[in-house]
Protein: Aspartate carbamoyltransferase
Organism: Bacillus chungangensis
Amino acid sequence: MSNFLTLNDLTIIEIKELLQDANQFSKGAQWFPAEKRYAVNLFFEPSTRTKSSFEIAERKLGIEVIPFEIDKSSLTKGESLYDTVKTFEAVGVDVAVIRHDQDGFYQELVDNLEIPLINGGDGCGHHPSQSLLDLFTIEQEFGSFENLNVAIVGDIMHSRVARSNAEVLKRLGANVMFSGPKEWFRTSYLQAGEYLEIDEVVEHADVCMFLRIQHERHHETAALSKEEYHQRYGLTEEREKRMKKDSIIMHPAPVNRNVEIADKLVECKRSRIFQQIKNGVFVRMAILKRVLSH
Ligand code: CP
């Protein structure tokens, strides 16, 4: 049985196989499970992109999607996450996609389940399908990761994509740079890449990946106003003019417009933000194919 929980669990060969499958799906390739399959998407935190693109991916692969609403389920009677997933397994569901606010929520589930789990995001932990779609978008643009300068800018400490993206990009041969508020940065992140000021980053990076300020994970109120954050750490229109000719802008979204990125730049020529969202469907088809093929 094959779960999909973090990219750290996968070898570079396995990651490249997933990217190849995503590429095939993006070009119209088809794959269907050998027999009827059922999926359930359990989202305990809000989501627009991840939930909808998993649903589209499941439907494109001919997988039946079982509706699930937390407030109409027996979770409201105190049933645990484990018993909920075990129940879906018992009624015949073949794969569960779960987003949960608890870091590593899957650790207490995986040993006693027979169906594969896909991590749709765990607290401040990991968001492996987002990381994979980020990799796919970068590969689509540049063809390779070797010696590419990739900057990860913003709320690194609370982001569930920043550190796992940095780790896997380094494994793939990219040079990773971090930027953003120093209070949201830890020296342990230096293992994956160096810290640079934003004005230096925009001039050297081939990929400028901005992160959303995760207000819901901040226990203290952010010290800066939105305008101050934008001027100090964001992609202003002035900074964009100093970016390299063929460099691109990425963001996992949702974007706080005029905070991480100037409103006008969210859909500019360099931006791949909506391409990332589009690629999310192909990558999630590849992930579902992998876990259902084992
Ligand atoms: N990027 C991302 O995970 O978006 P959602 O929260 O809308 O799924």
